[in-house]
User: Which sequence fits this backbone?
């Protein structure tokens, strides 16, 4: 009798909680994950943030408007130009400033180069997450070429502090066009080599295809944006849906995925690099002469009382700035809508029923930057 009970009794299982971080080397920043597993399967996952909190939003209230730009450089520290642009555009909208066309065109060049540099960093680190060592060499080779252009234009390789309310701090170097004409063929060849090296590698496909799937409905519900949203099949790009600066003058496509898995999130970024190169070539062909600062904009800025919200498409997605002015030379309130923060929420849906071995791959495919998550 007891033998029959033993054979028919269901097997008792116990979920195991695994802590990853905040010092884990593959968490792309000071980030902690708590993962509950049943055997090798992930039952649930919770992200824990707050280990990199620097109070950027609060610090902005004590800085002059042009000083705040340096804080935006440090939010998403691989999307510096894109972040600077959003903050400057918010003030310009509040003040009704018309930025000269030359400055607008140069801003677009810098932002699209920054997008490529960011995606090259993702390409290399994602390769490491999957177990491939060579992609980081290819990615950094071309990223360094872009950083050299940034250094020539702004004087800094990373924290540029180059955009200003009303335009730019200074014009580009006299040999800028020649530098770009040398750089673009190198980048085009570099992106092709990166694609050929990794995208259809048999091991890479096995580690990324059908892993961490995020459906279109889930991506929208979680408020995902950027490559994470587009990989799930939603063709949403702020540069197209709500064109800003001079983006409506250029012809480019919005790459989208089909399944919303890790491979789609990876390949959407590879395709975006090609589209950014296409945009830059069009900008250079149309680049006008003229001033790089709007007339009448003083060094100490005092926007009128009011509030404004501006959104742009940075390399990680929909980046927004809500700005409140009380008429003084310092912001009354600055609130940031960072794409990585919302994309991070969707990881719970991506990881459910995945394997423990897939955790780092799924996290890498989201491409978070903790500086803008914690702020």
Assistant:
């Amino acid at each position: 009798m007891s033998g029959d009970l033993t054979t028919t009794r269901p097997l008792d299982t116990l979920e195991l909680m695994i802590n990853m971080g905040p010092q884990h080397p593959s968490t792309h920043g000071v980030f902690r994950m708590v993962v509950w597993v049943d055997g090798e399967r992930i039952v649930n996952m919770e992200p824990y943030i707050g280990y990199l909190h620097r109070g950027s939003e609060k610090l902005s209230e004590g800085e002059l408007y042009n000083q705040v730009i340096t804080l935006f450089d440090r939010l998403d520290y691989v999307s510096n130009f894109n972040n600077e642009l959003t903050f400057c555009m918010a003030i310009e909208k509040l003040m009704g400033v018309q930025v000269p066309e030359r400055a607008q065109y140069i801003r677009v060049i810098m932002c699209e180069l920054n997008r490529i540099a960011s995606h090259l960093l993702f390409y290399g680190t994602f390769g490491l997450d999957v177990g491939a060592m060579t992609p980081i060499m290819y990615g950094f080779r071309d990223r360094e070429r872009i950083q050299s252009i940034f250094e020539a234009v702004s004087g800094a390789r990373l924290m540029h502090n180059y955009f200003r309310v009303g335009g730019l701090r200074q014009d580009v170097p006299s040999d800028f066009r020649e530098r770009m004409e040398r750089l673009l063929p190198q980048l085009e060849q570099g992106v092709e080599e990166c694609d050929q090296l990794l995208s259809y590698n048999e091991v890479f496909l096995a580690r990324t295809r059908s892993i961490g799937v995020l459906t279109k409905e889930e991506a929208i519900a979680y408020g995902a944006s950027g490559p994470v949203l587009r990989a799930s099949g939603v063709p949403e790009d702020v540069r197209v849906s709500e064109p800003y600066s001079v983006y409506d003058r250029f012809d480019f496509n919005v790459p989208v995925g089909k399944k919303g898995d890790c491979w789609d999130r990876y390949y959407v970024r590879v395709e975006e690099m090609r589209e950014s190169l296409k945009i830059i070539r069009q900008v250079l062909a149309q680049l006008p002469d003229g001033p790089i600062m709007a007339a009448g904009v003083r060094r100490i800025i005092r926007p009128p009382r009011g509030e404004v919200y501006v959104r742009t498409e940075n390399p990680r997605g929909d980046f927004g700035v809500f700005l409140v002015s009380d008429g003084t030379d310092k912001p009354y309130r600055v609130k940031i809508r960072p794409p990585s923060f919302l994309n991070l929420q969707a990881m719970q849906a991506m990881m459910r029923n995945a394997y423990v071995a897939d955790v780092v791959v799924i996290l890498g495919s989201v491409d978070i930057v903790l500086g803008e998550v914690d702020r």
